[in-house]
Acetyltransferase (GNAT) family protein
Amino acid sequence: MRLIDFAFIFIFMNVKIRRATEKDIPRTLELIQELAVYEREPNAVVIDVEELTKDGFGENPAYGLFVAETEKEIVGIALYYFRYSTWNGKVLYLEDLIVTESERGNGYGRKLLNAILQEADEQSCRLCTWQVLDWNEPSIEFYKAIGADLDEGWINCTVKQDQYKEIYQS
């Protein structure tokens, strides 16, 4: 059974995990902003609803998105995309797994992660990878508890958009 061919829903503790639709994007952005505050970067979010919608639901979607929804509202998201490893082949990269603060500890993050891992399996990905901040102990413990390998040997490198020309024209 392929997830793409079916409406994907898990029901667990009054939450359902499903693929996002365009109407979910405003709440998704709220959760992204909540994560930015949690990660001590409250002013770092520059994306808006329009761009998130275009990038996720346009002609060539740049990402996939699952939501965790209770009877009242969306309480979590898992945003992912595919990348390619020269050593391993196709990789599903989990960009963010977010559960709103008031709903943490209810098993919703695990259900979202299960959906991501099932998607990686269905898409024949050899790896599923993500990052966690070194001070985020609750998340680190969660990932250790499920048996994820935490690789401390890599350093993240980033070049921001306003730096591109300065670098490639030098």
Q: What stands out?
A: Residues 1-12 have pLDDT under 50 and may be disordered.
